[in-house]
Amino acid sequence: MLPKFDILTDEQLNKIHENSMRILKEIGVEFSYDPAIEVLKKQGQRVEGHRVYFDPDFVKEMVAKAPAQFTLHARNPEHNLVCGGENIIYMPGYGAPFIYEADGVKRDATMEDYDNFVKLAGASKYMHMTGGTVVEPTDVRDEIRHLEMAYSHIVNSDKCFMGSSSGYEYAKDSIEMAALLHGGMDVIKEKPALICLINSVTPLKYDDRMLGGLMAYAETGQAMVIASLVMSGSTGPATMAGALSLQNAEVLAGITLAQCINPGTPVVYGSTSAVTDMSTGSLSIGNPENALFTSASAQFARFYGVPCRGGGGLTDSKTVDAQAGYESMMVLFATSTTGVHFVMHTAGILQYYMAMSYEKFMVDDEISGMILRYLKGFDCESDEKMAFDVIEKVGPGGHFLTQKHTRKNFKLEFYRPELSDRQSFDGWSKESLDTNQRAKIKWQEVLASYVPPALDPVVKEKIESFIEKRAKELLNK
Amino acid sequence: MNTIFEEIKDAIVDGDEDLAVELAEKVIAEKIDPVQAVQLGFIKGIEEVGASWTSGEAFLPDVMMAADAMKAGMDVLEEVLAAGEGEGSYEDKGKIVLGTVAGDIHDIGKNIVGALLTSAGFKVYDIGIDQKPEDFVKKADEVGAKILAASSLLTTTMKSQKVLIEYLVEQNIRDQYKVIIGGGPTSAKWGAEIGADGWAETADEAVLLCKKLLG
Ligand code: B12
Fold it and tell me: In Å, how far is B185's CA from the nearest CA of chain A?
């Protein structure tokens, strides 16, 4: 793995850190959820109404309790993931309500799309897990969506996945399902199997739903991403340093609360901060500022000794075009080379998180493969890799195409694209397919040949009856 | 022409809320014609900002600060205008109650819609986030608004827009209001499905929509 580069100087990092501490202490953070207020009060933090003013030393002490890395357990142990250290975890986009099709058609996402994206992530060599809320399945009643979504991850793949964080009750349901999958709550308490996304409400608030979710995950020792999305210029200051200070304060407040509830519970420092487009007001994510926020967040997470979530294959484009490609590559490259560990939104996102696209998923999958290869860097470990012997053998003026060394090593060292076209002009012009068209053919092929890994029928049956029981309760409420 | 009108116009263009209020108070104290102050000051200013917005020279902070300054200054003049003081009369282009629906706390888009409607001459009453149908109606009755504008950013809260319309029907007051909706996951199709009077994808289009509905 490549060394991770720092985007901030030590001096800049310290200045921003101190600024965040001052925000926490003098301005405070609002928590609407009473149980959370109780927890923080008990720990001696100054509380006025729902506003908590944090003591910086206490924050440091609590954040230090969070592990630097942890293992997320999959149904198939081969897919267990270490979050932290040198590792990087890729997964599909999160939360988009729309599908944009290859021909520009916009439509509501459905449960069928949900299953499809889970399968595509299951089939992918580069997606380490199948993510969570891969689209918002608008054809499923929202009371039971979290159950259907978790079920899709469980049956369509054996990789790790994310659970619901929409309030205490739904969060508990996902955790129960993970427990059934892994053989009991005690098992997953020891070996965390689920991770969720907790978001602050920028600026400086946490709402009931998110805090309910946080409590459920923290109590059961499941992992969570605690993230802040500052829209620089609208929900936060228009200066990069100011927005980063604000984000940092919010994330530290959330991590502190999680550690108060269950010291040592696995958390990930999360950021999706980006900028506001001042001509439309929309969030804009395919830009250098987002890349900078992401890289700085990775550095802050290193500084606090926790894993980092951020970035992705991010774009503002509405279709799979050059803009989608160059923006996504910029952000995912910065994400990956500066030390982010957990990359929600790696693949599929179009138009600032509003849509998923199958074609974009395939493009991002290719970008992911390219970056993962880049991250491996140079291998100088053996004489074979240094290749002196073969250089000597071929000598001046020869060529390497007929060497055993070549035949063996190009497969190990060269990234082989699956979507990019490297043919001659004539070869390409037989069909003249652009990336978008090739991607469409590709994902259909992948889906058609994907066979979900078998699930123990007894376990499956248990999970299905849990869903049935809960669906009845929730729909009759 | 009184130089204060020019000053008011500049205060709006600069988005200087404090100055706009101060000047409006001066208009009252010095018994300057309030209708003229509005026409030649506030409206002139906001039109200028609106023109730069349309041509792409002005950005959101320019428009939103101008709208805030306009609103603050006009609030000061409201009473004298209502009392019919001044030459001729001033009437806003229409009153609109704007809010984010129950269960939803996203408000950036709503705020932008409010600012652009204000700068287009509408009187906007922003009731904030997480608002129930009753809250929309209560405000509308209080101020005599004809348009209810409901924002929703979540697929799970879009149904609150439907609930708003159902509430109006239940109360037998559906025909008293035009209901318009918007927000990221909404669509023209959704608007038609729930029987809204209009949907707009952007704040600029929301202005055109309101002009059409009240025109
Ligand atoms: C910023 C943001 C937040 C901020 C909100 C801060 C704030 N003060 O508003 C925070 C972090 C708090 C937040 C929280 C959540 N969010 Co959010 N959020 C966004 C984000 C990134 C941008 C929204 C925004 O402000 N856009 C900019 C404005 C200008 O655009 P706009 O609102 O669409 O408004 C324009 C038009 O729609 C129109 N318009 C708007 N309102 C109206 C009204 C009328 C009448 C008319 C005519 C027109 C109109 O005019 C505006 C200007 O052109 C969106 C994704 C996105 N790109 O939109 C997700 C998004 C909306 N959020 C999402 C989610 C899931 C959530 C959360 C549940 C948790 C989470 N996972 O983040 C919570 C829910 C909180 C709650 N109960 O409401 C999802 C929704 C998916 C879905 N199921 O529908 C999205 C799509 C992101 C995603 N892919 O996951 N969010």
Answer: 6
